[in-house]
């Protein structure tokens, strides 16, 4: 009997609980950085203009750029060690959801973000509670042959997918927009024939038209490394669920992946998804940049990779690069790994300062414990930085105490600290900085932590608390900064204005 790998799992007896922290905020300070870093200017006029413009972005305006990228991906030079570079695009520049106003767009982004954070924490708790892949079994039901001949259907957008890159797949190479994810490992794209596929911008990949398509056997090392797999007619089947009901199911294969005109790599393991539901509208699939053995970074044996994320309200693009040198002016922190979960990239954070004053939090707040709990990960798929409740309360209270001159307003969604800045053109706000070992500091631009949530001038402090032991450094804080993962030397670098 054939297998239809659906998202429901038969789990062994399993229970976990989220640790709930209850702290009294203590925004005391110490080790003040230089006074010139106490405040910075937020250009309200520019950010509101950009917020208004994003609603009118027309994805069709990317046609010329898209054609150029397609032409660049024809017959790329094959290599396994060169520097690779591809363009990055924001979700909203490729897919216009036709929101009625900027407020509804922000609410949609925050809803996706909350789902994303839940999925990351679910993955961590799976690891901490020693739930192994042998405990996971796909539901075994019959998959009829006619199920693979139904037309492509629309799906809902429930995954992260905030930034897309364009890579080529197959021989000859066909270009596809793929969502980036540093929080997962398995690469996949939608494939013909479709049992159930969501709508994407590009034609669905047809493996019969690629000379380099090769299905993996059930005994293949890559198949054995999957968390959930099955076997049908000697071929490996994969299943990936993202914790929000989204999933992809299909054959596990190897294919040639091309990086624009900078080269290609053969025999990259990736999923050929025939049933993909509730996932990334517009993107053809997902590129996993995590630290596990099945990620793209691991498979191409990259010694480093970096990305620069443009503002999500901007139609501009930036780049994703592999094996390129880290910018000389990077502020670096130690790259840490969790023995329980090799996917996530943890950074050794010494502390956070507000207005030039270090916030007092226990030293273990951002440390990865021996049990695998705690720490802070750098994630391009999460938008809003989540800090452990104690740290968040301290940072927020310090920011509030230094902005008493600003008119406050009601909270918005996950944000509890918001301001009515509608009567101002610009405003001085306290700086917020991340600090690493050796006295190194990364000063965030004001627009990376005080963001508009509507078109009328309501701005909110773009951090949020988490009851999980794990904190997350999100992409709002990373915007405009080249984030480099030096895998060879175990460093994470942050270099502003390198997009």
What does this entry look like structurally?
It is a single chain. The chain is α+β, with helices and mostly antiparallel strands and 499 residues long. It has 8 helices and 33 strands. The strands form 7 sheets. The protein has a 6-stranded mixed beta barrel with strand order 6-7-14-8-13-12. The longest helix is centred in the N-terminal third of the chain and has 27 residues, at 102-128. The protein is globular and about 70 Å long. Residues 1-33, 72-80 and 133-160 have low confidence and may be disordered.
Summary tags:
single chain; 5-stranded antiparallel beta sheet; alpha+beta; 8 helices; 499 residues; 16% helix; 6-stranded mixed beta barrel
What is this structure's SSE topology?
Layout: E1 9-11, E2 29-30, E3 39-43, H1 44-54, H2 63-72, E4 84-90, H3 91-94, H4 102-128, E5 136-138, E6 163-169, E7 174-181, E8 188-190, E9 214-215, H5 221-225, E10 229-232, E11 235-241, E12 247-258, E13 264-277, E14 285-288, H6 296-299, E15 304-308, E16 318-322, E17 331-338, E18 341-347, E19 351-354, E20 357-359, E21 376-378, E22 385-388, H7 389-401, E23 408-409, E24 418-420, E25 426-430, E26 432-435, E27 441-443, E28 450-452, E29 458-461, E30 463-466, E31 471-473, H8 475-478, E32 481-486, E33 491-496
Parallel strand pairs: 7-14, 8-13, 21-31, 22-30
Antiparallel strand pairs: 1-5, 2-20, 3-25, 4-6, 4-16, 6-7, 6-12, 8-14, 9-12, 10-11, 11-12, 12-13, 15-16, 15-32, 17-18, 17-33, 19-20, 19-26, 23-24, 24-29, 26-27, 28-29, 32-33
């Amino acid at each position: 009997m054939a297998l239809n790998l659906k998202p429901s799992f038969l789990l062994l007896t399993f229970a976990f609980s989220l640790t709930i922290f209850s702290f009294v905020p203590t925004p005391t300070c110490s080790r003040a950085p230089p006074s010139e870093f106490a405040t910075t200017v937020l250009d309200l006029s520019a950010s509101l203009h950009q917020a208004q413009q994003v609603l009118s972005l027309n994805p069709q305006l990317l046609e010329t750029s898209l054609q150029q990228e397609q032409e660049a991906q024809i017959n790329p030079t094959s290599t396994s060690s060169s520097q690779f570079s591809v363009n990055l695009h924001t979700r909203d520049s490729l897919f216009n959801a036709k929101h009625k106003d900027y407020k509804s767009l922000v609410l949609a982004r925050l809803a996706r973000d909350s789902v994303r954070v839940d999925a990351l924490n679910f993955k961590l708790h799976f690891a901490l509670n020693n739930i192994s892949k042998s405990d996971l079994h796909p539901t075994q039901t019959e998959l009829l042959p006619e199920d693979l001949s139904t037309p492509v259907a629309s799906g809902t957008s429930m995954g992260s997918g905030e930034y897309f890159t364009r890579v080529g797949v197959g021989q000859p190479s066909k270009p596809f927009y793929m969502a980036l994810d540093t929080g997962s490992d398995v690469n996949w794209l939608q494939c013909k024939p479709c049992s159930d596929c969501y709508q994407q911008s590009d034609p669905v990949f047809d493996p019969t038209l690629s000379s380099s398509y090769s299905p993996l056997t059930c005994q293949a090392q890559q198949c054995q490394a999957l968390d959930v797999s099955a076997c049908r007619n000697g071929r490996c089947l994969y299943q990936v669920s993202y914790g929000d009901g989204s999933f992809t199911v299909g054959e596990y294969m190897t294919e040639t992946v091309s990086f624009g005109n900078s080269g290609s790599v053969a025999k990259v393991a990736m999923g050929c998804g025939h049933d993909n539901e509730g996932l990334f509208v517009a993107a053809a699939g997902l590129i996993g940049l995590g630290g596990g053995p099945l990620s793209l970074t691991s498979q191409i044996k990259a010694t480093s990779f970096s990305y620069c994320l443009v503002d999500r309200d901007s139609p501009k693009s930036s780049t994703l690069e592999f094996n390129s040198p880290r910018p000389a002016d990077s502020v670096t922190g130690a790259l840490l790994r969790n023995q329980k979960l090799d996917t996530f990239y943890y950074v050794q954070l010494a502390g956070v300062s507000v207005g030039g004053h270090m916030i007092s939090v226990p030293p273990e707040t951002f440390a990865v414990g021996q049990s695998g709990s705690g720490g802070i990960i750098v994630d391009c798929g999460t938008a809003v930085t989540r800090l452990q409740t104690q740290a968040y309360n301290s940072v927020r209270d310090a920011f509030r105490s230094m902005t008493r001159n600003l008119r406050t307003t009601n909270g918005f969604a996950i944000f509890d600290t918001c301001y009515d800045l509608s009567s101002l053109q610009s405003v001085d706000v306290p700086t917020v900085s991340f600090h690493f070992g050796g006295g190194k500091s990364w000063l965030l631009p004001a627009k990376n932590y005080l963001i508009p949530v509507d078109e009328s001038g309501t701005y909110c402090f773009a951090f949020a608390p988490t009851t999980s032991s794990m904190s997350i450094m999100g992409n709002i804080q990373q915007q405009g900064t080249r984030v480099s993962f030096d895998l060879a030397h175990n460093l994470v670098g942050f270099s502003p204005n390198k997009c």
